[in-house]
Design a protein that fits this description.
With 551 residues, the chain is an alpha/beta fold. It has four domains: 131 residues, no CATH class; 99 residues; 122 residues, P-loop containing nucleotide triphosphate hydrolases (Rossmann fold, 3-Layer(aba) Sandwich), CATH 3.40.50.300; 65 residues, no CATH class. The protein has 19 helices and twelve strands. Helix 13 links the parallel strand 7 and strand 8. Helix 10 crosses helix 11. The chain starts with 5 loop residues before the first strand and ends with a helix.
Length: 551
């Protein structure tokens, strides 16, 4: 069973791709709105399935969460580590410039409110670009507010936040020193590990190494030197932890003075110890790549054709300092990872072109698992494979999830596969999340008309379901550049009314952990799977005389 502890919290995420202006006289900027107001909590140990038609923004969401694409607005908070573990630079920047940033978000809030008032005043005569500017300004203001209060907490509500910010900065400076010392100790342990591995290798097979005695003596000397250095670093680390305790006590003492301040308490609730991935520098995000991995859709183009399987898996291990290059222990670890993924030892020195599609996907999985991640985005990782190979890969992912307590974001078109592997399922349409619930709930009680249509399209060999009518959606998906007003689905919806064309539906919780964005929240399907609404039947055109003649 998945944990209730959050691993990732995505709030109001937007991803817009700007479009080049067609003319120098074009004033407004157009965007492809790939993701719009996405809010999801992904819990540790669960598989979160994401479904929808091609072009709805599923893969873009997966890549944006991993910051392979920069997000336009919103926050993506990772709880696999704390701010103290990584010590990102954005925290110190926020604390040093707290008064300026507070003034900035208040200015942005005023701007967003002014644009909202202008659109409301103009009513139906407000242009597309005015609405777009209003939405972007509101998102920017909310993001700026969240960026400040998640670091400052209740101090952001005070007229003078500088004393609180100064204490928090002092505490954070100590955490930076602790984080650096931990990294140094880790590198020392890596050197000791490599020296011990060399000594063990020489003792087991002296003839395989030239000047074995000298190398063993040098390695043992290095072990002694590094062990002494490690002890000094650990002593320094213990001192810094005592300083950190004093800093924390000073912060808590200042907060106690405002315990009766309602606004202080309200802002203090925003305080968040998770890492905002969208605010990290490239070098900082690179440190978290070992925690957050991706398995790409195409196993052919996602592997370097000039590298062997061993080199492909080794690259991440050396980059993230699991082993030193050439370490005998690393080779055994790579082979063990390959075995877990169903790859034989003799494949270590083979190149990607020598494997089948299913074997290549296993290599991609081994590469992702080698660095011991917490979270993996499976971006349609079985869609390019044969059905028999699909089942092997899915069973492998399930087995590895149980063994290593992994968390997946599983993106797919195949609803049957998603139902089998997922704990919860999100349904996307044109960049928006329209329904979210457990896998059992989504299949037994779909509430959004789009979800009902998707489920009706699942191929089946069950004789009882062959007579069930299919819901055919008319027309194409609207352009994500200029999406329809109101509900985005109303142009294809078989239940749409006038309200759907004007008012965007709110995203509400209809039952526990079951969220829907629709104006019609009643049940659509009964316990036996029968529709509780009338389906528009296609009128059959009368046969022409030519068609009858052909028959």
């Amino acid at each position: 069973m998945p944990s209730t502890n959050r691993l990732l919290s995505i709030t109001n995420l937007k991803k817009y791709f700007p479009i080049a202006k067609s003319s120098i006289f074009q004033k407004g900027q157009l965007y492809v709105r790939a993701n719009e107001e996405i809010t999801i909590d992904i819990h540790s140990g669960e598989t979160f399935g994401l479904v929808g038609e091609s072009g709805c923004g599923k893969s873009t969401l997966g890549r944006t969460i991993l910051q392979l694409y920069d997000q336009t607005a919103g926050s993506t908070i990772y709880y696999g580590r704390t701010l103290a573990d990584l010590a990102p630079s954005y925290v110190a920047k926020t604390l040093k410039n707290a008064p300026k940033l507070i003034a900035k978000y208040k200015k942005l809030q005023a701007k967003a409110q002014a644009l909202a008032d202008e659109c409301e005043k103009l009513g139906d005569s407000a242009t597309f670009f005015q609405h777009q500017s209003k939405n972007l300004a509101a998102a920017e203001a909310e993001t700026a507010f969240q960026d400040v209060v998640k670091i400052l907490g209740g101090f952001a509500a005070l007229d003078d936040c500088r004393p609180g910010a100064a204490l928090l900065l002092k505490k954070f400076s100590t955490e930076i020193l602790i984080a650096k010392l931990k990294d140094e100790i880790w590198e020392i342990e890596l050197e000791i590990k490599a020296c011990k591995a060399l000594v063990k290798h020489v003792n087991e097979d002296p003839s395989s190494v030239k000047n074995a005695e000298k190398k063993v003596a040098k390695a043992e000397s290095s072990i002694t030197k590094y062990t002494a250095l490690k002890e000094k670093k650990e002593a320094k680390l213990a001192e810094l932890r005592m300083v950190l305790e004093e800093d924390e006590q000073a912060v808590e003492a200042l907060k106690a003075q405002y315990a009766n301040n309602e606004q202080f308490v309200q802002y203090e609730a925003y305080l968040d110890d998770g890492i905002d991935l969208s605010r990290l520098k490239y070098s900082e995000m690179r440190l978290l790549r070992k925690d957050l991995q991706i398995i790409f859709q195409d196993p052919y183009s996602s592997l370097n054709p000039r590298m062997t399987v061993g080199q492909i898996i080794e690259e991440g291990l050396v980059t993230h300092k699991f082993f030193k290059h050439g370490s005998p222990e690393m080779k055994e670890y790579i082979l063990e990872t390959m075995r877990q993924c169903g790859l034989q030892d003799y494949m270590l020195h083979r190149y990607p072109h020598q494997f089948s599609g299913g074997q290549r996907q296993r290599i991609c999985i081994a590469r992702a698992l080698a660095v011991q991640p917490n979270f993996i985005v499976c971006d349609e990782c079985v869609s390019a494979l044969d059905v028999s190979i699909q089942s092997q890969i899915i069973n492998l992912l399930q087995e590895l999830k149980r063994e290593k307590s992994l968390t997946y974001l599983f993106i797919s078109h195949d609803l049957s596969v998603v139902r089998y592997i997922s704990d919860r399922i999100g349904v996307m349409y044109l960049g928006n999340l329209v329904e979210l619930g457990t896998a059992e709930t989504i299949f037994a009680d779909p509430r959004h008309p789009y979800t009902v249509a998707l489920l009706s399209s699942i191929p089946t060999t069950d004789m009882a379901n062959l007579s069930k009518e299919r819901i055919l959606l008319e027309g194409n998906i609207p352009s994500p550049i200029r999406p329809p007003e109101g509900c985005k689905f109303h142009t294809r919806c078989y239940m749409a009314c006038e309200k759907c064309r004007i008012v965007p539906p709110p995203y509400v919780e209809v039952e526990k952990d079951h969220f829907v964005a629709c104006h019609f929240l009643d049940r659509k399907v009964d316990e036996n799977g029968n529709y509780l609404f009338e389906i528009k039947k296609e009128e059959k055109k009368p046969e022409t005389s030519e068609e009858k003649t052909e028959e």
